[in-house]
């Protein structure tokens, strides 16, 4: 009974301190029912409070006004602005870039990860390699994108557990000459380290498990324009080696955006890989 009463009291208190942000009502009048990115601004012109995206700007922004959990942000907000896009893809790209460059107070921070790494398999033993040393957009035999070396090795251990692979043959621990690994005695390793299975079978299972994590090399020689058509507008998203250069309204403008991007953009890759390769959007080779 005590726990239920406490829970009720906390919920009541949260609702009690919430007040509808009447001072922001004026900014709702012009909100369109179309995709785009919106920004809640506070007193500072340089540090937004919150940046979000939606396929329906008006509906999404108004949903913030009905959320007591966001009372603190709404009390600090002084105005709302928005940028329409052709569709959800353009909204995702713009939102990710704006959050990364403007670092709004109430968003999860998206910063360039200098430890971004992957597993590379050129022979039998996977190696952890870093985006600071290799261009991941055009390096072959990369599997998975990880925030740290530890995360990459933990994924490799997970694959070893699922596929009964040998930690010694994967480079995760040292093997003693002429002896199998400790996991083989526990039947957690199929025994490639002690002759109970051919090394080729071990390698095949490793390769098959890694294939689901393959990082796709950029398949074009240069930049491409991905055409996204919406009800109110059409945009050409210019992409080069998984790096979003910007969105424009004409092919002539798209050609002017071409430049060499710097570094591998993890967020851009996650957003763009499937849409680009699926054939869902018309492409213009630039």
TrEMBL record:
<keyword id="KW-0378">Hydrolase</keyword>
<feature type="domain" description="GIY-YIG">
    <location>
        <begin position="33"/>
        <end position="108"/>
    </location>
</feature>
<keyword id="KW-0227">DNA damage</keyword>
<keyword id="KW-0742">SOS response</keyword>
<dbReference type="GO" id="GO:0016787">
    <property type="term" value="F:hydrolase activity"/>
</dbReference>
<keyword id="KW-0228">DNA excision</keyword>
<dbReference type="GO" id="GO:0009380">
    <property type="term" value="C:excinuclease repair complex"/>
</dbReference>
<dbReference type="GO" id="GO:0004518">
    <property type="term" value="F:nuclease activity"/>
</dbReference>
<keyword id="KW-0267">Excision nuclease</keyword>
<dbReference type="InterPro" id="IPR050066">
    <property type="entry name" value="UvrABC_protein_C"/>
</dbReference>
<dbReference type="InterPro" id="IPR035901">
    <property type="entry name" value="GIY-YIG_endonuc_sf"/>
</dbReference>
<dbReference type="InterPro" id="IPR000305">
    <property type="entry name" value="GIY-YIG_endonuc"/>
</dbReference>
<protein>
    <recommendedName>
        <fullName>Excinuclease cho</fullName>
    </recommendedName>
</protein>
<dbReference type="InterPro" id="IPR047296">
    <property type="entry name" value="GIY-YIG_UvrC_Cho"/>
</dbReference>
<dbReference type="GO" id="GO:0006289">
    <property type="term" value="P:nucleotide-excision repair"/>
</dbReference>
<dbReference type="GO" id="GO:0009432">
    <property type="term" value="P:SOS response"/>
</dbReference>
<keyword id="KW-0234">DNA repair</keyword>
């Amino acid at each position: 009974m005590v726990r239920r009463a406490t829970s009720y009291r906390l919920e009541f208190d949260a609702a009690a301190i919430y007040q509808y942000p009447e001072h922001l009502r004026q900014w709702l009048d012009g909100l369109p029912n179309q995709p785009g990115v919106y920004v809640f601004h506070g007193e500072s012109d340089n540090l937004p409070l919150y940046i979000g995206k939606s396929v329906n700007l008006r509906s999404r922004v108004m949903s913030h006004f009905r959320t007591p959990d966001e009372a603190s942000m709404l009390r600090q907000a002084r105005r709302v602005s928005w940028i329409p896009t052709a569709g959800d893809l353009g909204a995702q790209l713009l939102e990710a870039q704006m959050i990364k460059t403007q670092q709004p107070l109430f968003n999860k921070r998206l910063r360039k990860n200098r430890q971004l790494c992957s597993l590379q398999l050129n022979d039998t033993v996977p190696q952890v390699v870093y985006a600071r040393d290799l261009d991941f957009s055009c390096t072959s035999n990369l599997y998975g994108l990880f925030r740290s070396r530890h995360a990459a090795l933990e994924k490799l251990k997970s694959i070893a557990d699922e596929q009964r692979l040998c930690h010694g043959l994967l480079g995760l621990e040292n093997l003693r000459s002429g002896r199998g690994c400790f996991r083989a005695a526990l039947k957690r390793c199929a025994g490639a380290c002690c002759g109970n299975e051919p090394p080729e079978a071990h390698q095949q299972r490793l390769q098959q498990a890694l294939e689901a994590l393959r990082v796709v090399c950029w398949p074009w020689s240069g930049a491409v324009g991905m055409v996204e058509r919406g009800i109110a507008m059409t945009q050409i998203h210019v992409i080069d080696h998984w790096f979003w250069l910007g969105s424009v309204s004409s092919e002539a403008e798209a050609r002017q955006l071409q430049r060499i991007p710097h570094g591998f953009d993890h967020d851009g890759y996650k957003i763009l890989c499937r849409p680009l390769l699926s054939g869902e959007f018309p492409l213009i080779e630039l």
